[in-house]
Amino acid sequence: MNAAFYTLGCKLNQIETESIADAFRRGGFSLVSWEQGADLAVINTCTVTSRAEQKARRVIRLALSRCKTVLLTGCSARSGEEAALAGSRAERLVIIPGTAKDTLLDLPRFLADTGKAEGRSLRAWAAERLRAGAENADPEKKTPKRQFRFNPSNFSFHSRAFLKIQDGCDRSCAYCRVPLVRGRSVSLDAAEVLARLRDLETRGFDEAVLTAVNLCQYEGGRNFAGLLELLLEGTERIALRLSSIDPALALDDAFIRAASDRRIRPHFHLSVQSGSDAVLAAMGRPYTRDSVGRAVSRLREAKDDPFIACDIITGFPGEDEGAFLETRALCGELDFAGIHAFPFSRRPGTRAFSLKNRVPERLAVLRVGELLALSRTGRRRYAGRWLGKTVEAVRLGEQKKSLFCAALADNYLKVGIKSDRLPPRGAFLCELKALNGGDNGGTENFDMTGEIARG
Ligand code: SF4
Asked: Fewer CB within 10 Å: C terminus or N terminus of the chain?
């Protein structure tokens, strides 16, 4: 039997799919691309924007036209709607709520024992698992196990390792559905995080991405800064890359002390969302425009010219021209190397859903365009500052079509290296030679081209 996987959304979804795929691979399934059709397709969905949900629906339809049985899970997996969408094919669609996604880790064993992969049997199996899960659940336990069963022994779709350390969120930003679908904040115990990181190091991984809904809410017996200290003391060589952080974290002395360690990658992604204090307050974000500026300065003190990127939502209700100009000005002043901008999406169940003063989507999209233009020049300027310098890099996946193989530098720059010279695995020192768009054909996917550093 074979299985295919399709993931939408964040790094957490990525590592959860990696774990499920790993369980299928170890269960003797061959992993195939879902385009070619499969016995079983697993779709891991996202609910952060309505666009993500629309995309999930398209993928469901395509998967049902190519695959025998489709398992739908993740943050926007809701029984009614999808079943209606599937129509006559609903028989072959099995929905596992995102909060019970971990049951899919046990599915390969059920299939190996029974061989029953058709919709009806899998729905019965899922219902039984959900019932058993509900019976054994103990909501008081601050570090429930099920969210942290996702610990892949190998990565099928990524060459770097991801380590899930926290899930859910105790905050309720006005535009966000995450707390509604992933629940309250839970953390993996610090000792267990260390054990898993040591295991990755022993297995030869050079870098692990610490992954969470919100790293600032980590509390597995220590806060996040304390966890970083423990991980750096308890390992020797593996580098740590952080998934996105709140600006407030970068104002914490203990975090800055830990972040200045050479094994913490010089790459920080700040979830800023707006540069207007009025909009930040309306969003329910616990910081101001000024504290974002101070956070960026602290990070630049802690590291030698780190890659600093940010998330921005444009068109939040009440964002008038003045507020947007404040956001654009802040992004320009702070010279971000990357700006992930996306238009506000009205999400059911959130406070912002019923806010007045809505901004026309056309205008929100125009504002995204302005910020992405700023992002392109900021990224090129950042890459230009690294020309001729030597950085540590790790290989990203197999060489595809061009002469160049993709590598990710410690400062998050994407580098093209002549493929026949790249070590199959492991970190290496790389000299950054030219900005992309030079006369080296096939560099379009990279910020720069580079060579393995001599000596
Ligand atoms: S901090 Fe806010 S935006 Fe982030 S997951 Fe929590 S509620 Fe959503």
From this structure: C
Alpha carbon distances (Å) from 419 to 46, 348, 423: 35, 47, 9
For residue 444, the CA-to-ligand 1 centroid distance in Å is 34
Q: Ligand 1: which atom is nearest the Cα of residue 170?
A: 6
Predicted structure pTM score: 0.92
Q: Decide if 270 contacts 244 (C-beta within 8 A).
A: yes
Q: In the β-sheet with 69-74, what is the strand arrangement from edge to edge? A: 30-31, 2-7, 40-45, 69-74, 93-95
| Cα gap 261→234, rounded to integer Å | 14
From the CB of 172, is ligand 1 less than 6 Å away?
Answer: yes
pLDDT value at residue 437: 62
Residues 80 and 189 in one domain: no
Does 186 share its domain with 230? yes
Rounded distance between C-alpha atoms, residue 21 and residue 4, angstroms:
8
pLDDT of 140 over the 80 cut: no
Within 8 A by CB and 6+ apart from 281, the residues are none
Q: 31 lies in which domain range?
A: 2-136
Mean pLDDT of 271-275: 98
With a cut of 60, say whether residue 427 has pLDDT above it: yes
- How many whole angstroms from 49 Cα to the centroid of ligand 1? 13
Instruction: Specify whether 119 is located in the same domain as 42.
Output: yes
Q: Among the listed ranges 28-42, 120-134, 201-215, 369-383, which one has the minimum average pLDDT value?
A: 120-134
Cβ partners under 8 Å of residue 323, min gap 6: 274, 276, 278, 279
Residue type, 114: T
- What is the rounded average pLDDT of the residues 163-189? 96
Give 152: exposed, middle or buried? Use CB within 10 Å, 0-12, 13-18, 19+: buried
Q: How far apart are alpha carbons 205 and 202 in whole angstroms?
A: 7
All residues at 6 or more sequence positions from 324 whose CB lies less than 8 Å from its CB, including other chains: 276, 314, 367
Instruction: Scan for tokens 């909009």, then name that residue.
Output: 279
Of the ranges 70-79, 128-137, 150-159, 207-216, which one carries the lowest mean pLDDT score?
Answer: 128-137
Count of domains for the chain: 3
214 CA → ligand 1 middle, Å: 7
